[in-house]
Every structure is written in C-alpha cells, then in structure tokens.
UniProtKB/TrEMBL annotation:
Cited InterPro entries: Amidase (IPR000120), Amidase_CS (IPR020556), Amidase_dom (IPR023631), AS_sf (IPR036928)
PROSITE patterns referenced in this protein's UniProt entry, alphabetically: AMIDASES
UniProt similarity note: Belongs to the amidase family.
Position of the signal peptide: none
A GO molecular function held by the record: catalytic activity
Protein name, as recorded: Amidase
Pfam families in the cross-refs: Amidase (PF01425)
Sequence ranges assigned to domain Amidase in this UniProt record: 26-449
Species of the source: Marinococcus halophilus
C-alpha cells in the first residue's frame, strides 16, 4: 500500500480522500515512511515533521468525515523548500548563519496551504540561500537525483525536485530567481511552474534577489500544478509586488484543446548550443502539439543576446545587497561557492545595474511583441542533462562547458521579464529526464498549463519513473 499511494498524483488521491476510501492518516504515514526510507539515498529533507504531520492528518480526516472537505489539497502531505517560513519552526535557508532561525509568522503561501488543509511533512534541502543550481550543500549535504543518485537534482529547489520525483512528498513549492523551480523540475522529471511575477506572494520567503524572485508549484502532473497554483495565488497586502488581478480556476481551463494554437520557436537563442538528444526530444514534443492542431511560427528577439548579462548583473547586485552584512561579519560561515558570488556581486557599478534594467525593459518589449503573433514560446528547459555531483562542467555534444552559465541560459529570461514559464517532462536522454519549457504572456498561466496538459496527455515519459519508485 505504501508504494502504491506515494506513486499517485494529487489528482488521483483527492477523489479517494473526498470519498473516504483513503484516509489522510493512512496516506501521510505512507509518505512519511517512504520519506524516511529514501532519505539516506536522496537527502531531500532537512527536517521531517512526523509527529506534527500525523496530528494534522488526523485533524484533516476528522474534518472530512464530518463533511467539511475543503478541496483538492485537503489531507495531502507536502514538504516545502526550507526558505519558506513556518511559524515557530526553524527555517535554515540551508545555511549555517540561519541554522537556528525561527519565524514568528507563517509565510502567506504556508497560511494558504494550511487553509486548504494541507498536511506539512517537513522542510526540504536546497542550495544555500537559493544561490546555486547543483544543490551540493556544504552544511546539509548534497541532494541526489532519484533517477541517478550520482547526479545533481538541479537547484536551488533540488530537495523539492528530488522529494516529488522520489515520492517522499506528494507535491511541493519551490522558489525561482533564475530557474530554481524549472531547473530541478527538468532534472528530476516533474512539472514546475514559475508563475507571473506578482501572481503569488513572497511574504515570508527569504529573498535572493527582490525583483527576480518567484514562488511556485513543483508537482507530479500539470493538473496538480494547476490546483496548487489556484491554492496559493492572489494579491497580498504584505507583499507590495503582488498584483491585484483575479485568480482563475486553473483546473477548469485544462481542456487539452490546442487546435489552432500558435507556437513560437526562437532558433538563434533557445535552440543554439543545445545537447543534440535534448533538442531532439523538445522538437518531438513540439511536433506532438502540432499533431493535435497547433501551428509553429519562427520568432526573433534580438535583445535575448544580452539577457544572460542582464540577469547576472541584476541577480548578483541584488543578492549581494541582501547579504552585504553577512560578507562583512560572517563570510567564513558562507559556503565557498556562494561567498564568491556575493563577493562578485559587490563589483557591478550603479551604471552596470541600470544598464541591465534597460536591457530588461527592451526584453519585455520584445516578448510582448512576439506574443502579439504567437500564444506560447516553447524551448528546452535546460540545454544539457544533469551532471555528476561535484562536477562544475556539463557535456554539450562532446564539449566541456561551464555548468551554471549553461543551465540558467533558457530559464533566466523569464525571471527578467516576470513572464510565466512551465517545465514539463518530455522524455529521457541516457536515462535522465529532459524538460520542455512553455513561456506565455503575463498572467496567462491558464493557457500554458492547458498546453502542458495537452502535451502531458501524449505520455512523453512512457510511464517511466525514477529509480526510487520502480
């Protein structure tokens, strides 16, 4: 029973819970047992809340028995990235400096999850202060990819990616500043959504770079992501970056109809210097949508050539401002990799930062112009497959290339523009998952989720699962 239920998606589990044929207590115990069983292999968790989770599951069960079913996520056990505050719980940011930090309030997304009846199973490992893409953490240990335990899970939300892929959390939330939801989602073969900037509150989430940060779902399926976004989205007075626009019923929009959809493909940037196996899978994914009635249109965005520079200057500058005091007083307590990044972030001038914002403005205009002619832009999520833990280089068609520079190439532009971007699994290359990225116009999450749903229904993963679920 344990393995059977942890394999299921929220969409499969919710009706069983609502109909009282599956108890939240039974499900939570199965997930906790599996999390403890797989922890040595994946190192996905920083802390497991067994006692509290079982109590919350009993409360959920009682409410459901009494006819107070709250919806899709009621009684669903979930762990979150350890950068999201829980009241009276330690939130470490996977760092030494904050190893004993306890918040006196819940993050807005945590509050909304509690209102939905979610059962909290614990906090998940991540790259220190969310500033990296390997999740090779010097304080809490490396997270291992459930598809191949020698490989990185991607980051910075690597614990979330590994936990969902391994079945040790039914779903999760991650944060994304240059791709940190979509990178591990691609690497671990799950669905990851970075919503539009302002769609989901960041109140109670430790910042990496104020103007680039996002919070979003990491799930087994597109429908699970739609339901989770519906749960956490909305305006929040505590977060001045949120935008007061209506929250759609994202699940109702999942029709799977993509007839006459216009797909934008940008060759010179998003299909330049891509692993040949990855490119083949993504192009095959686009063809699966064409086979359902979609059309392809080539698009050009000249400002993309400056996107990597603008993303780097912006993220380095903002992150180093946030951690300036740590550099002055506790530099030795930072991991070597992020300390170097924070030091580099002190180098850009005000001129550099403001020039980067001008590039950002032009990039937004270029995307806006493209979306006058196409409905969605489809790209590889990553140009390479996950590397071995500890290897700072990736293999790109036989050439060794810098890992971090390449991994954020295709995800970073959506952080600069704030546009919604969804990563969906599109197959395996040498036994490792490959993600296909869908980028849409601002606040059009319903549209890209539906396109992802239509693609997912073609079964691109052919029913294959990670090593820890076989």
């Amino acid at each position: 029973m344990s393995k059977e239920v942890v394999l299921k998606s929220v969409d499969e589990l919710a009706p069983l819970i609502e109909q009282k044929s599956l108890s939240p207590v039974e499900l939570t115990k199965a997930v906790l047992d599996h999390a403890e069983h797989t922890q040595q292999a994946t190192n996905a968790y920083v802390e497991i809340y067994r006692e509290e989770a079982e109590m919350e599951a009993k409360q959920a069960e009682k409410e459901i028995i009494n006819g107070n079913y709250r919806g899709m996520y009621h009684g669903i056990p979930m762990a979150l990235k350890d950068i999201i505050y829980y009241k009276d719980k330690v939130t470490t940011m996977a760092s030494k400096i904050h190893q004993n930090f306890v918040s006196n309030y819940d993050a807005t997304v945590v509050k909304k999850l509690k209102e939905a009846g979610v059962v909290s199973t614990g906090k998940l490992n991540m790259h220190e202060y969310a500033w990296g893409i390997t999740n090779n953490n010097p304080h809490y240990g490396a997270v291992h990819n459930p598809w191949d335990l020698d490989k990185i899970p991607g980051g910075s939300s690597g614990g979330s990616g590994a936990a969902v892929a391994a079945g040790s959390s039914i779903a999760s939330l991650g944060t994304d500043t240059a791709g940190s939801i979509r990178i591990p989602s691609s690497a671990c073969g799950i669905v990851g959504l970075k919503p539009t900037h302002g769609r989901v509150s960041k109140h109670g989430v430790y910042p990496l770079a104020w103007s680039l940060d996002h919070v979003g779902p990491m799930t087994k399926t597109v429908k699970d992501a739609a339901g989770l976004l519906q749960t956490i989205a909305g305006f929040d007075r505590n977060d001045p970056t949120t935008v007061n626009v209506p929250v759609n019923n994202y699940i109702e929009h999942l029709t799977g109809n993509v007839k006459d959809l216009v797909i934008g493909v940008n060759e010179e940037y998003f299909f330049h210097q891509v692993d040949s196996g990855v490119e083949k899978l993504v192009r095959a994914g686009i063809q699966r949508l064409v086979d359902q009635g979609a059309k392809v249109k080539q698009v050009s965005m000249p400002s993309l050539q400056y996107a990597e520079w603008a993303e780097l200057v912006t993220s380095l500058s903002e992150a180093s401002t946030i951690h300036h005091q740590h550099l002055l007083t506790r530099a030795e307590d930072l991991g070597n990799d992020i300390r170097l990044l924070f030091e580099l972030g002190e180098l850009p001038s005000a001129v550099d930062y403001l020039q980067a914002q001008q590039v950002r403005r032009q990039l937004k205009q270029d995307f806006q112009k493209v979306f006058e002619d196409v409905d969605v832009l489809i790209t590889p999520t990553l140009p390479v497959v996950p590397t071995s833990i500890g290897d700072d280089h990736a293999d790109l068609n036989g050439e060794k290339v810098d890992l971090i520079d390449n991994v954020i190439r295709f995800t970073g532009p959506s952080n600069l523009t704030g546009l919604p971007a969804l990563s969906v699994p599109c197959g395996l290359k040498d036994g490792l998952p490959v993600g296909m990225q869908l980028v849409g116009p601002a606040f059009q999450e319903a549209s890209i989720l539906n396109i992802g749903y239509a693609f997912e229904n073609t079964n691109p993963m052919d029913g294959k699962r990670s090593e820890l679920l076989r």
